[in-house]
Specification:
The protein is mainly beta. It has three domains: about 20-100, Carboxypeptidase-like, regulatory domain (Immunoglobulin-like, Sandwich), CATH 2.60.40; about 125-225, TonB-dependent receptor, plug domain (Ferric Hydroxamate Uptake Protein, Chain A, domain 1), CATH 2.170.130.10; about 245-405, no CATH class. Helix content is about 10%, strand content about 55%. The chain has helices spanning about 1-20, 130-135, 140-145, 270-275; strands at about 25-35, 45, 50-55, 60-65, 70-75, 85-90, 95-100, 125, 150-155, 160-165, 170-175, 180, 185-190, 190-195, 200-210, 220-230, 235-240, 245-255, 260-270, 285-300, 305-325, 325-345, 350-365, 370, 375-390, 395-405.
Length: about 400
Amino acid sequence: MWTRLAGGIALLLVLAPLAIAAQPIVVEGRVQDANGTPVPYANVRIEGTTDGAATNASGRFRFRTRRHGSATLRASAVGYEATERSVRLAPGDTVRVQITLSSTRVRLDETVVTGTYSTGPEEQTTLDPTEAVTTPGAAGDLFRALQSFPGVAAPGDGAGLFVRGGDVSETKTLLDGAPLHHPYRYASPASGTFGAVRPFLVDGTQFSTGGFSARYGDALSGVLAMTSKNRPTRSRRYVNLGLAAASLALDQPLIEEELGLRISGNRSFTGLLFRVNGQSDDFATVPQGLDGNLSLTWDYADAGHLKLFSFARRNRIGAETARGTYTGLYRSETTNQLHTLQWTANPGAWTVESRASWSAFTTEKTFGALDLSPTDGAATLRIDATRPAEDWILRTGGMVTHRRYH
């Protein structure tokens, strides 16, 4: 019996300190500023732990912790310098603390706000190439990515931009300020399957679905303005190979800080893709395309800029098509070219931008005995001048276009 009693006493002596150490400690108090005013929503916690609480509207806080011994209590709030207090925590105790915070100024980075004036409530959205290729459902296409924006409808599977109920032809498309009259690949009366301009040919895109200034007075529903990449700053080479396409690109500075060249080419070959999916029999000629572009940029002065941009593409497709009671073979081969020369200068207080462009579009379509070969060519000259002043900006310009459709 004495042996059992001694064992029980020994066990009690071992467990008693553990039970005492396991008792939670209550930490409570008040946080105030230098004038004695409560500081609400301050964060109070024990350093090195997650134990803590936020003060209420009266600046009071209360929380439990199992940390014991010496500890550091830290209090912080927006607009105040963080303060630390050393406290002694004993199991089962209630520790009361009053903390005073000193106010401090919060310095923010300077924000510069600029704006422009237009005659309408302009609603404009910008889109960079990375956003275009990462937009879900866009298939890496710039025009399909824009279809996800408010005010744009996508009634079919095409890439057409139907803005606020308008027709696809009512959206004006520009590349370096030059009109792109046929902006779609595998074009149809209801737009086309993909956009003609690949995302990584451009530096940025501005898309307006609201009111726009007189500069775009011939646009009815919207304006899509794309800017091609400027002079490369270092030499780069790109090679991409996929299941349905391959591309090559070269960026090469010719004269440091002055002259640079960009060349790229793309070849699409969807035959393998359709064979893998068991759809190769649907086409007499599987959709295929070839396009290339060249950009030469010369920064001949601090305010002088000259850029030549050339773009050309060709697409082919052939498929069995049913139209009413007639079934026949539909074939189409399309070529599209755009060449622009852009010149920017600063005579006096003015900034003058001049653009000369030439575009040519040809297509050969056959459907049974029906053979159509329309052509569309256009030459455009546009000059814009801007003069800033202290309280206003003066903008003026004009455009002349000669277009021939046959």
